Structure formats: structure tokens, C-alpha cells
Amino acid sequence: MKPGALPDLAVGLAVTALGVLGAWLTWVIPVTPVYAVVGPKLVPAVIAAALFVLGLMLTAAALRGGWSADLPEVAEAGPRNLPALGWLLGGMLLNLVLIEPLGFSIAAALQFVCTARAFGSRAPLRDAVIALTVSLTAFFLFVEALGVNIGAGLLEGAILRALGQEVS
Amino acid sequence: MDSLSGLALGFGNALSLANLAWALLGCFLGTAVGVLPGIGPALTIALLLPITFSVSATGAFILFCGVFYGAMYGGSTTSILLNTPGESGSIITALEGAKMARNGRAGPALATSAIGSFVAGTVGTLGIAFLGPVIVEWALVLGPAEYFSLMVLCFVTVSAVLGSSPLRGLTSLFFGLMLGLVGVDLQTGQPRLTFGVPELLDGVNVVLVAVALFAVGEALYMAWHHHAGKQEVLAVGRLMLSKEDLKRSFWPWIRGAGLGFPFGVLPAGGTEMPTMLSYFAERKLVKPEYAQEFGTTGAIEGVAGPEAANNAAAAGILVPMLTLGLPTSATAAIMLSAFQSYGINPGPLLFTQQAELVWTLIASLFIANVMLVVLNLPLVGLWVRILKIPVPQLYAGILVFATIGTYGISNSVIDLVLLYALGIVAMFMRRFDFPVAPVVIGMILGPMAEQALRQALTISQGDWTVFVTRPGSAIILGLAILALAGPRLYAAIARKA
After folding, report:
1. Separation of alpha carbons B157 and B180, rounded Å
2. With B285 labelled, which of A24, B84, B279, B396 sits at a CA distance of 20 to 30 A?
3. What is the model's pTM?
4. What are the residues whose beta carbons fall under 8 Å from the beta carbon of B54, sequence distance 6 or more?
């Protein structure tokens, strides 16, 4: 086995596992009392079987030497930048935790700052100013122009109150 | 309704102030997202889907189609000035376009691609207007069995024909089909693949999946291999085409348009293949005195042809979408889900039941083409400015919009968890060269295919041979098998060229 093929092997096995998961999920679909030529289980079973077979084929391809190490995009890509990935994932986690207690704008602004940091920005204060502008613009664009209902958080509520609007 | 009276009706509606405004907004947004690396029309239309709750169907689709066409125009600007294709149809444009730009000929390259896009877009839209009703007439006799076979053909072409590996394409497709299964089975009322999570009973939202695949996954992948370094935006210079440039561009435009449109129409979808074929054709057909410009200083033929092919294919993709309800690209799949949220079923009946909508849409495409030439040539300076948005703030901004677009669906953190989890999957898909478009298409078309399968089998009283005994269905299934074997043939030809 070629050294670069190990990640590909993991992918092949993951797809195979997805097939197995699909088969189990199909198994637990309740049996329907309604008569149907094609019951609720048939299509899921076919899809799970296909994923299982495709996973085995990918695994075989990996064992024969893999495919991804030869891709120009992978070969030419720079070294892995795990700190950058960490900042990005950290920003996502922060957003997940804070979006309910603090509201969209603040959570998204913090995510913005982390994401910009991930891509090499070194001016967190400037980013924070841009971030709040962007997230507030996005909020009012979605709420006012697209009519999406997103509950106002701390910041949005304060702004709406300052504009003299009722905040629910 | 025949095409001419349809167009007359359509232009009457499309020229209203509101519809012109929607078209302009769509073209503007579309060009912007086409120019910006990292976002494309599929993501943009997904984020705009909420307007389907408050805007009329006509307005919304004019907007979406403006975005769709606009992204094709904008993508070429990025390819030429940055040597980074803004979207997949522009990869080929970057080959010669960026070389022209480096040799001080960015202006003519931009001009030939904008005018070529206009020529091809107009040819392609004429194609929609005149071919559409013909296909509809033919499609009206199709039963559920034929429909199911057509969807199988569509699955095969989008996953196994496009992209570099049928194996990986099919894996993506089946992953999408699996996502499409999540939720309550409409016919039997049984929950499927929900893990007992009540939020999943309604299924996985299309917007969420599109945003995860096209925005979050892309951002994660870019961060994974991020290294500092500034990209240089090349100077535009004079935009005028000289007489010689015009002469050299003319036939490539026409050939590109002629090549691109059928590729879009046949569910051989995608814009990569026609642009590549057009490039090879122009390279072969170029006058000997310009032949040495290919690959060195950049040949204008190599920009004009593929750009035209790209736009004509984009127009062609709308034909199966509007006449059969078959999406052959991720963007078309998301537009299809927009139709569904209006309770409109795209398919042959669309042209009769929603004639006004369809013809207004087609007329708007002509108008959008005119707007886009104006937006892209005189205003090219504006797009160059957009290109200069620094990468950190660009991706940060994309993620903010991704988050709000997803959170807005149901204000649920579970959706966001799903968004980021799928984003991580998409990152690995990108790393291991699994195409993402088949995921979206499988997810949207899968449930429709299951429904067609059930209808066909109900009509045939459970007889599975119906798919091969009905001649139409048998022919389409035969084509699907051919499409599965075809790429190998194509690869052999491409290797020789």
C-alpha cells in the first residue's frame, strides 16, 4: 500500500460504515399497516446497499494505492494549517453556544472575528467593528427584506427599542 | 401557446417596473457572487429562498434567474483578473484569459467574454423559448414509468458522467439520496432515518444542505490549507475590442454557443464539459498565425469560445428544469425546490398551467442578458473593487450569512449543529475529490423519483417489468446505461486531443 493511501482507506471504510448505518436505520423503520406496492423500507434499503457496495469499491481503490494523493489540488496544496482550522471551528462552536443567550448579531460577530483570525487577520478590533456592521446588516436584511423571523437578541432588541419599535 | 405569442405575453409582463427591478437586482447580486471566489449561484439562491414566502412566484424566479445568469458573467471576471475561477464553468476561461491579462490584454479578454456571454445567452434563451414548447408536447405523453427512468438517467449523468470519477460521483449521489429520505414517508406516514429526533420529521432542509456544502465546507477547506499571501488583481486596461479581436472572437462565440446549449439541455448537465470541448475545438481551428498565442500570451479564441459555451449551457440547463422538472445542476435543483415551496410542480404542465410565469421568466432572461452586458462592461471597475475584498473578511462574512440563512429556517440550534457537521463532511468531500452537486440533486430529486416509482408500480399493479416493456422507459434506461459507459469513451478521446 502506498503511504499516501491511508486517508483514502479511511474514506472508503467511512462510506461502507454509512451503508451499514443506513441498513440499520432501514431496519428500524416501523412496519407500515398501510398496504403499499413500494413500502417505506424498499428505497432506503436500496440506497443503503448501494452505499455499502460503493464503500467497498472505494476501500478496494484505496488498497490499490488510493486516488487523492495524485490529485493536483491535494499535491499542490500547502501544508496543513491546523491553527487556522481550529480558529474556524472555535468560531462555530462559540456561535452555537452564544446564539441563544445573546442573540444572532453578537454571536455571529464573534464568529466573524474568529474566522477572520483563521484566515490570517491580525486586527481583531477592526474586525469586530466590521463584524458588527456585517451581522447587523445581515440581521435587518433577513428580518426586514426577506421576512425571516429571527428573534431579536440583546443588541438587536436595544437597536429596535432605540428606533421606537416594539420588541416581542 | 406557441413561442411567439408566449414571448409577446412574457415581454408585456417582464417590462413592468417591478419585474425589471427584480431582474436588475438578480443580475447585480449574481455578478457579485460570480466574481467573489467561494460563493456561487447555488448558495445565493438557497439563501434567498425565504423570499418565496413574501414575494410572488414571478418576481422570485426572475430574481433567481438573474442570479443564475449573472454568476456566469461574473465568474469570467475572476478567472481573467485573478486566475482563480469564480465558479466551475469558468475554469477553462482562466487558461487563456489570465495569460491575456498578464500580457496587458485583460480588457479585450473581459470584453470578449462579456459579449460572448451575451451572444450565447441570447442564443440559449431563444433555444429555451422555441425548444421548450416542443419538449413539453413530447413530454406530455410520458407516464410515471418514463419519469422514473428519466430521473435515473439524470442521476447517472450528474454523478457518473460529470466529475473525475464515477465511483466518487455515485457515492455523493447516494449520500444525497439518503439525506433526501430523512423525514416522514409521504405515502405511508412512517418516520424514516430520523434517529428519533423530532426536528428531523420534516426532513433535512435544502437551504441547510446547500449552505453547508457550498459555504461552510468551502470555508473549512480553505482554512485547512490556508497560507498567507496576497493575490494580485491584474489591471484591466482598455476594454475595447479591436476589429481584429472582433473578427477572431465571432466564430468562437457562435461555435461555443452551439456547443454549449445542447450539453445543457441533455441531462448531460454541467458547464465543464462543453467549455472544455469548446477550448479544444478553438485550439484546433485557430488560424495558424495565432496558434502560438495559445498557452503563451493567451489567445482570444480560447476565451471567447468557452465563455460562450458556458453561458449557452447555463441557459440549456433551464430547459429540462422548466419542461420536465429535472434539475441537472445544483443551482437548478435549488430553483426546483423554490417551485415546490410555491406549490408549483415543474414539468410539462408548467407551460400550460403557469404559462404566464414561464413566458415572463423567459422574457426576463433576454432582459437580464442585456442588463448583464451593461453591468459587466462599463461597470467592470466596480467588480474589480469587489475582488479586492480581503480573504479573511470575505470568508468571515460568508459564514455570517450562512449562519443567519440557516438559523432563520426555524430558529433552532439543532439546525446549526447539522449545518456545521455537514460542513465538515463537505470539507472532507472536497479534500477527497467527491463532487458536491450530486448531493443536492439527489436530495431534491430522490423523493420525486420514489414517488414516480410508486405511481408507476401502482399503475402496473406491482409489475416491475413496466420499466423495460414500455418503449419510452426502456430507451431512456438504455441511455442511462450508455451514459455510464460513455465517459470512458470520452476520456479516451480527450487523451488523444
Report:
1. 19
2. B84
3. 0.90
4. A146, A147
At B176-226, the pLDDT tens digits run 999 999 999 888 888 999 888 888 898 899 889 999 999 999 899 989 887
Residues B264-304 pLDDT 10s: 888 665 777 888 889 999 988 888 888 888 888 889 999 99
CB contact under 8 A, A112 and B192: no
CA dihedral of B44, B47, B51, B52, whole degrees rounded to 10? 90
| Residue to test with chain B: of A6, A85, A126, A127, most B Cβ within 10 A | A85
pLDDT digits over A16-41, tens only? 999 999 999 999 888 766 666 788 88
Q: What is the pLDDT of residue A143?
A: 85
The alpha-carbon gap from B412 to the nearest alpha carbon of chain A, in Å, equals 9
Distance CA B462, CA B476 (A): 21
The neighbouring-strand residues paired with B183 are: B192
d(CA B223, CA B217): 10
Q: Read off the pLDDT of residues B21-47 as tens digits, 9 standing for 90 and up.
A: 999 999 999 999 999 887 889 999 999
Across the A:B interface, residue pairs with CB atoms under 8 Å apart total 206
**H or E stretch covering B139:** helix B106-139
How far B416 CA sits from the closest chain A CA (Å)?
7
Q: What are phi and psi of B268, to 5 degrees?
A: -95, 10
Residues 360-389 of B with CB under 8 A from A: none
| Count of CA atoms in the C-beta half-sphere (13 A) of B496 | 5
Interacting residues of B116 by C-beta distance below 8 A, sequence separation 6+: B249, B252, B253, B256, B303, B304, B305, B307, B308, B311
**Terminal CA-CA length for chain A:** 62
For residue B46, the surrounding DSSP H or E stretch is helix B41-48
B242-278 per-residue burial string, b: 16 or more CB within 10 A, e: under 16? eeebbebbeebbbbbbbbbbbbbbbbbbbbbbbbbbb
With 60 as the cut, is the pLDDT of residue A168 above it? no
Nearest Cα residue to B346 out of B313, B324, B369, B367: B324
| Largest separation between any pair of C-alpha atoms in chain B | 69
CA gap B335, B61 in Å, rounded: 8
Window 197-256 of B: residues touching A by CB (8 A cutoff) are: 219-220, 222-228
Rounded to 5 degrees, what angle do the CA atoms B62, B68, B74 make?
A: 125
- The complex's ipTM works out to 0.92
Residue B172 near residue B439, CB atoms below 8 Å: yes
For residues B96 and B295, what is the distance between their CA atoms, to the nearest angstrom? Answer: 7
pLDDT band at B151 (very low <50, low <70, confident <90, very high): very high
Between CA B311 and CA B306 the distance in angstroms is 9
Query: A115 contacts in B (CB within 8 Å)?
Result: 219, 392, 395-396, 399
- Using the beta-carbon criterion (under 8 Å), do B407 and A119 form an inter-chain contact? no
Look over chain B and give the mean of its residue pLDDT values, rounded to a whole number.
Answer: 89
d(CA A115, CA B227): 14
**Residues present in chain B in total:** 497
**C-alpha separations of B180 from A55, B160, B188 in Å:** 19, 19, 16
DSSP A4: G
Domain residue ranges in chain B: 3-496
> Which has the closest alpha carbon to A135: B234, B397, B126?
B397
